Amino acid sequence: MTYTEQIKARYAAALMGNYGLPPVAIREGEGRTVTDVDGNTYLDMIGGIAVSSLGHNHPALVEAVSGQAARLAHTSNLFLHEKEIELAEKLLELWGNPGKAFLCNSGTEANEAALKLAILHGTATGKTRIVATENGFHGRTLGALSITGKAAIREPFAPYGRDVVFVPYGDIDALKAAVDESVAAVFLEPTQGETGVVPAPAGYLKAARELTAEHHALLILDEIQSGFGRTGAWFAHHAEGIVPDVVTLAKGLGGGVPIGAVLATDETAALFTKGVHGSTFGGNPIACAASLAVIDTIERDHLFENVLALGRRLGDRLLADPRITEVRGQALWRGINLAAPVAGEVVEHLIGLGVLANAPRPDTVRIAPPLTITESELDAFCDKLVEALDTALPHPPAPLRDVSPHTGGASPRKPHAPGGRP
Ligand SMILES: *Cc1c(COP(=O)(O)O)cnc(C)c1O
């Protein structure tokens, strides 16, 4: 019995089965490489689901976290500390709009806070309806789940007692039909991550901004996966030149340390008066120090330039293979669409070849590697993917067809413009 097998047996005996049994038992990481308990190494192309933005064991993150833990680990919100102020100021500066921040510990918590803002806005204006999107994902707690469009994970916990309408993602006419004066807020992801990295067509966010403004509803953008560098920018919505009322962040924000954040314009932020919301750990000094180190490193090392250049290279390389029908998304956040529903098998073969990725749906391999990845590591991934496809899909089925539900009208064999909207 290998050590991995022993560890897996202990995992299955001690932890609940909601994640199934994960395939690899990771012991440690360094840069873009992780090592399992048996000493096998893997190129990390998923980064803990778009979280490990600086890779593993990055000196800036190690120093920020250990230094902060040695000085002050926790205050609660009964008392303030300077790191939370520094982080809030920095996030608002990067966002580029006057407003205020609320700090929490995860993505779903950020969306819970945003939902509370939506409810308070609705109470103040006599509106009760929330509009969200089919196949959208906003988190697993009951508030965030109530606006999550994936029926398979939402319905087992229904009813929610909230008036939520789901519209097809990326469809401006459907949004027009759904948004009227009864709507308190519209929740959107700039690109649907958990659905297989599916971007909205150009102009969608702008149309959503215009519609919500016209009907006095909040536009709430969930940038938990799309934000903080995935698209080669701090915020994906910056590319559309719009200002949402609320943005939620998490995942890459802490580079591996749990943290979430909500940014809101001054008018919306004012809805959070004393006592209406809170979190014991929110704005924790260690998490804030980690996040500041992530921001500082991205800026100092010009990581977005790396992400954009490698993103272009990746698109070109992958589309040369006829078994890859579409490379959705931007920069180093991609849904690699296969000509057959063998993504699960491909991901298994990749693990065997020493690469970690995931399959958010049967026809799509998702990658979201550390922003620090190098060109030679990216090339190695492309070679391994071709090798995995040689096993899982030796002959491309003919004729090629587009099997993705939303391509934003883009032709299925064309890469999306890196850094811009498709
Ligand atoms: C991951 C994710 C969430 C939930 O974040 P957690 O930290 O897992 O609670 C919400 N929205 C989007 C778009 C996500 O990708």
Quick summary of this structure?
It contains 14 helices and 17 strands. By secondary structure, it is an alpha/beta fold.
Structure write-up:
With 422 residues, the protein is of the alpha/beta class. Helix content is 36%, strand content 18%. It has 14 helices and 17 strands. It has a 7-stranded mixed β-sheet, with helices on both faces. The chain has a 4-stranded mixed β-sheet with strand order 1-2-3-15. It has a 4-stranded antiparallel β-sheet with strand order 13-14-17-16. Helix 3 runs antiparallel to helix 11, helix 4 packs across helix 11 and helix 13 packs across helix 14. The chain is globular, with a radius of gyration of 21 Å. The relative contact order is 0.15. Bound molecules: pyridoxal-5'-phosphate. Pyridoxal-5'-phosphate binds next to helix 5.
The hetero molecules present are: pyridoxal-5'-phosphate
Q: What ranges have pLDDT less than 50 throughout 5 or more consecutive residues?
A: 406-422
* Strand coverage percent: 15-25%
The number of distinct structural domains comes to 2
Helices and strands: which structural class? Answer: alpha/beta
Beta strands, count:
17
Q: What is the overall pLDDT average?
A: 94
Under CATH at level 1, the class of the largest domain stands as Alpha Beta
CATH superfamily of the largest domain: Type I PLP-dependent aspartate aminotransferase-like (Major domain)
Tell me the CATH topology of the largest domain.
Aspartate Aminotransferase, domain 2
The separation of the N and C termini measures 48 Å
Spatial order of the strands forming the largest sheet:
4-12-11-10-7-5-6
Radius of gyration over all CA atoms, rounded: 21 Å
Q: What's the helix count?
A: 14
Any idea what the shape is? globular
The biggest sheet, with number of strands, parallel, antiparallel or mixed sense and barrel status, is: 7 strands, mixed
Give the fraction of residues assigned to helices.
Answer: 25-40%
**CATH architectural grouping of the largest domain:** 3-Layer(aba) Sandwich
